[in-house]
């Protein structure tokens, strides 16, 4: 576990090392393996080269909105698939899994045409609404609900007069929070790091997301990898904060779920 952890952490450590050195140090032989003293200088170059904080705000809006919508819609659909019988249930679930296996790149062109037709090209809605639900989240939460919610609890809720939504909010949600915490981390990271679709659909420079804005450092700064790495370090910090917050929630709710 220690060896595996070191291997996984090394790219992040190398990013920090390069962000604190100069571009000349990037080509040094042997390469530098300890942090330098140029971090603030490189960060200043990032802030003067791109609209960093504006792009981060756009990315935060998209990532938070997508995460909230995915957690709600995916868990709601998963509850229906896991605990309710309705016509063509197995067919619809299989169809959803089939869509899950289709590469996302295949939907790029029709999705872009749809955004043109409804006038959303260049807006953040084009990033939020298409990502409001996904097959992976439904599949994950369906498996989680199937194993963590006994049918007897739902039967008791029905006898107490709970309808579908009251069962979802009062019975299901308190138990599935660990699963939602994992899905929240996964969705937020995916939305934060998304690059291809924002690059295609965002044509307004003021509406760029962080990953697209950081890619401009290669153009505006040439091959200054130290500046590029400094931008990457700044972009990683919010992900670390979100991961730590949700992971604590994941562990805490796992214990509470066991007690319940």
Task: Detail the topology: elements first, then pairings.
Elements: H1 2-19, H2 23-26, H3 39-49, H4 52-83, H5 89-101, H6 108-118, H7 125-128, H8 135-148, H9 151-159, H10 164-175, H11 177-193, H12 196-201, H13 210-215, H14 217-220, H15 225-259
Helix pairs in contact: 1-15, 3-15, 4-8, 4-11, 11-15
Subcellular location: Cell membrane
Pfam family, one: BPD_transp_1
Signal peptide: 1-19
Write a concise synopsis of the structure shown.
This protein is mainly α. It has helices at residues 2-19, 23-26, 39-49, 52-83, 89-101, 108-118, 125-128, 135-148, 151-159, 164-175, 177-193, 196-201, 210-215, 217-220, 225-259. It has one domain: Orthogonal Bundle (MetI-like fold), CATH 1.10.3720.10.
CATH architecture level-2 label: Orthogonal Bundle
Q: Give the mean pLDDT.
A: 89
Could you give the distance between the termini?
32 Å
Q: Radius of gyration over alpha carbons?
A: 22 Å
CATH class: Mainly Alpha
Q: Indicate the overall shape.
A: globular
Number of domains: 1
CATH homologous superfamily placement = MetI-like
CATH topology: MetI-like fold
Question: What does this 3D model show about the protein?
Answer:
This protein has 260 residues and is mainly alpha-helical. The protein has one domain (2-259): MetI-like (MetI-like fold, Orthogonal Bundle). Helix content is 75%, strand content 0%. It contains 15 helices and no strands. It has helices spanning 2-19, 23-26, 39-49, 52-83, 89-101, 108-118, 125-128, 135-148, 151-159, 164-175, 177-193, 196-201, 210-215, 217-220, 225-259. Helix 4 crosses helix 8 and helix 11 (177-193) runs antiparallel to helix 15 (225-259).
């Amino acid at each position: 576990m220690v060896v595996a952890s070191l291997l996984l952490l090394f790219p992040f450590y190398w990013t920090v090392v390069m962000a604190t050195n100069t571009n000349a140090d990037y080509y040094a032989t042997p390469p530098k393996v300890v942090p330098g003293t140029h971090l603030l200088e490189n960060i200043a170059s990032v802030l003067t080269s791109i609209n960093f904080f504006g792009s981060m705000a756009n990315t935060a809006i998209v990532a938070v909105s997508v995460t909230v919508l995915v957690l709600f819609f995916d868990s709601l659909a998963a509850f229906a698939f896991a605990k309710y019988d309705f016509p063509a249930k197995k067919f619809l679930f299989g169809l959803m899994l089939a869509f899950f296996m289709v590469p996302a790149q295949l939907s790029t062109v029709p999705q872009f045409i749809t955004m043109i037709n409804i006038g959303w090209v260049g807006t953040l809605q084009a990033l939020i609404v298409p990502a409001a639900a996904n097959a992976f989240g439904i599949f994950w939460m369906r498996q989680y609900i199937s194993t963590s919610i006994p049918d007897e609890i739902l039967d008791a809720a029905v006898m107490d007069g709970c309808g579908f939504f009251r069962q979802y909010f009062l019975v299901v949600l308190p138990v599935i929070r660990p699963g939602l915490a994992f899905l929240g981390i996964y969705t937020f990271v995916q939305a934060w790091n998304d690059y291809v679709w924002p690059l295609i659909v965002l044509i307004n420079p003021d509406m760029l997301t962080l990953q697209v804005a950081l890619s401009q450092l290669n153009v505006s700064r040439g091959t200054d990898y130290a500046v590029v790495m400094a931008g990457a370090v700044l972009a990683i910090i919010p992900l670390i904060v979100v991961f730590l917050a949700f992971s604590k929630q994941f562990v805490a709710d796992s214990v509470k779920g066991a007690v319940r």
